[in-house]
Specification:
single chain; alpha/beta; DNA polymerase, domain 1; OB fold (Dihydrolipoamide Acetyltransferase, E2P); Rossmann fold; seven-stranded parallel sheet; six-stranded mixed sheet; 23 helices; globular
Length: 668
């Protein structure tokens, strides 16, 4: 059955599906729900204190309809033996006629608490208990239509989604059959069946990924064997204005050993905020340039690229290494000069953004590619830079830097093609940041504390999730509105600045320079300051609507303070939750990332699109033990001679599974 033959799928909807990467029935069935609404467990009104709930009771009085500013609001209340709960519908005036009065009914919706009062917002009537799948929105396809289309597609699951795992392997790992898993993952009969189904599909995806990476690893490219003397790393550290940690010395020695080999290095260096990864990148660059080759370091933002360039000039040029900068906002004359210097080799180390991979850039003898904050780049961007240095079937060495901590076991699994170095030691003198959750009622007290810190000579950040207010997102603070309110209200008299991602580059540079120089007391911003901003004098980080951020991103933002010897604070403006309490309990980024993984899942592994779009593939659940089990399974298949038939079957499926993606995946 083709997609076009499914009920309700015309040319327009077919185009919408294709835009999301769904081109076949198999693609459609592989688009699992992003979440589920459990409409099977009725709870009493008195216990409905937040989140999605199913209530059963009676609406005793006719709903009331009110209008304001062109909008409508319907209000009522539902009563059961435990008490009552307010109901509210926005812009759904027809509810007044459809809601039965005095009759038993079930309603499903989200309980929202505002000013201490609870209300069930925009509830839907439920005729029979069920677990309802919720899919990512597809333009032109209403949610109900998409679910109906999926139910029709599931009648063909046996034909288009055959079994992929050998029966003996499934029995060993207690995995259900694939067709059962796909059916239950879309329309589960119970939460237990859903867990069983998701585990099977996640295990399969991880196993196929491991098999594909293993096949790719066997084809690693030849590289340039650099002539690096044994004591070169130690001599580099003696030129630094600080003493390295033991972890830094160990990792630079690992990098040096890689650079000496004839196989192109593929190494991930990851560590917590402030562990000294940039110094390691400079060490790798110094070793490479000292051996007669060029180095290129790509950062995700112009701010970070410029910061790396300025630091490199101070640290590397005294060693005789000529440094250059290449960013998009440079004038044409400046770009022509750096292009020429890269082409003839007079520029030995270049720092920049994606401008490093633009069409007009060529390198004289590129031996090392460093990508900083690698999770912020698309796979193809990193790969193109590597390809620019490829000559005579030899590829440059690749060093991937990540300041987003990943649990070590997961890093070894996700980056199966990379050698992983963990910088698990912070330099002495770093003061742990005190983290507190601040409810709305304590906001003014927090501002009072912030003002005291500024009066003591310190500085502060206030981070908001949005640049401007949006009607589509309620109760979310924007940077512009917050700046206006603080500058004329709670923080009046202090020097308050504002910056955001798409701000004019010159204005942004001026604001950040002013903050770095102490000319601005409080910087209001979006997450643009997440990386590349280093102001040791900043001692307070305020994060508005903290519940909207992932734990790892909150940890990254928190890392902007505590960079000096003074005690620092991070305030999370949000309601109390177990998720946010994790940040209050620990400053260990690896532990935070582990919890974030368990709560959010690692997402799509091998696609070139890393976030922001619905991917035509399964999403892995955040069960780390399952990920480790899949990794051990693949290791056993490779090593046990009695399991070679299983291994061949899995590898064949992996090649088929990733056939269209393998050519696009960069080994970095």
């Amino acid at each position: 059955m083709e997609l076009s033959t499914l009920k309700g799928i015309g040319p327009t909807r077919l185009e919408s599906l294709r835009a999301m990467g769904i081109v076949s029935l198999r693609d459609l069935l592989c688009c699992l729900p992003v979440r589920y609404e459990d409409r099977t467990q009725v709870i009493p009104c008195a216990q409905a204190t937040g989140g999605d709930v199913l209530l059963s009771g009676i609406v005793p009085e006719k709903p009331k309809l009110s209008r304001f500013n062109g909008l409508t609001r319907v209000t009522a209340s539902i009563h059961d033996e435990s008490g009552k709960l307010s109901l509210v519908w926005y812009n759904q005036p027809w509810v007044c006629q459809q809601l039965p009065v005095g009759e038993p009914l079930m309603l499903f919706g989200r309980v929202v608490v505002k000013n201490g009062r609870r209300a069930l917002q925009n509830p839907q009537r439920v005729t029979e208990p069920s677990i309802l799948p919720v899919y990512r929105a597809v333009k032109g396809l209403p949610a109900k239509t998409f679910r109906e289309m999926m139910q029709t597609a599931l009648t063909q699951v046996d034909d288009c989604c055959p079994e992929t795992l050998p029966r003996t392997l499934r029995l060993r790992h207690q995995l259900c059959e694939r067709n059962f898993a796909i059916r239950q993952a879309h329309f589960p009969d119970s939460m237990e069946n859903l867990r069983t189904a998701r585990r099977r599909l996640a295990f399969e995806q991880m196993l196929m990924y491991q098999a594909a990476i293993g096949l790719m690893r066997n084809h690693k490219e030849d590289g340039f064997a650099l002539d690096i003397v044994a004591d070169a790393p130690e001599r580099f550290w003696t030129r630094m204005p600080f003493s390295p940690t033991g972890a830094q010395k160990r990792v630079l020695n690992e990098i040096a050993a890689d650079l000496r080999r004839e196989r192109a290095m593929s190494r991930l260096v990851q560590g917590d905020v402030g562990c000294g990864k940039t110094a390691l990148a400079f060490g790798a660059i110094a070793l490479t340039c000292g051996a007669g080759y060029q180095s290129a370091m790509m950062a995700p933002t112009e701010i970070l690229a410029r910061q790396h360039f300025e630091s490199a000039k101070a640290l590397l040029e005294p060693m005789g290494i000529t440094c250059g900068l290449l960013i998009g906002s440079m004038k044409a004359k400046e770009k022509r000069a750096i292009h020429a210097a890269l082409a003839d080799g007079t520029c030995q180390a270049v720092f920049g953004t994606h401008a490093l991979i633009s069409e007009g850039v060529s390198y004289h003898k590129l031996g090392l590619v460093v990508t900083d904050e690698q999770h912020r780049f698309g796979v193809r961007q990193r790969s193109i830079l590597q390809e620019k240095g490829q000559t005579e079937e030899k590829a440059p060495h690749v060093l991937v830097m990540s300041a987003t901590p990943i649990p070590r076991t997961l890093a070894l699994i996700l980056y199966g093609d990379l050698d992983v170095s963990v910088v698990d030691e912070l330099p002495p003198g770093r003061t742990p940041v005190q983290t507190r959750i601040v409810p709305e009622g304590k906001r003014n007290d927090m501002y009072g504390f912030l003002r005291q810190q500024v009066q003591q000579g310190r500085q502060a950040y206030v981070v908001c999730p949005l640049v401007e207010d949006s009607e589509a997102v309620e109760n979310v603070r924007s940077a512009r509105a917050t700046f206006d309110n603080l500058a004329s209200g709670e923080l009046a008299g202090l020097r308050v600045g504002l910056t955001w991602g798409n701000q004019n580059p010159e204005e942004k540079a001026e604001v950040l320079h002013g903050f770095s120089n102490g000319e601005i007391d409080v910087l209001v911003s979006t997450t643009v300051i997440e990386v590349g901003v280093n102001v040791p004098n900043a001692s307070v980080m305020v994060i508005e609507n903290a519940e909207r951020f992932g734990l790892s991103q909150l940890h990254q933002l928190r890392g902007r303070v505590g960079r000096g010897s003074t005690e620092s604070w991070c305030f999370l403006l949000a309601e109390e939750s177990e998720r946010l309490r994790i940040l209050c309990k620990t400053n260990d980024g690896f532990l935070v990332a582990q919890k974030d993984l368990e709560l959010r899942g690692p997402g799509d592994m091998m696609g070139t699109r890393q976030s922001g779009e619905m991917l035509a593939g399964f999403l892995l659940d955040g069960d780390v033990r399952m990920l480790e089990e899949a990794s051990r399974c693949m290791k056993q298949l490779r090593e046990d001679p009695l399991l070679q038939d299983e291994r061949q079957a899995v590898e064949q499926e992996a090649l088929e599974y990733y056939r269209d993606k393998l050519s696009q995946v960069a080994l970095n």
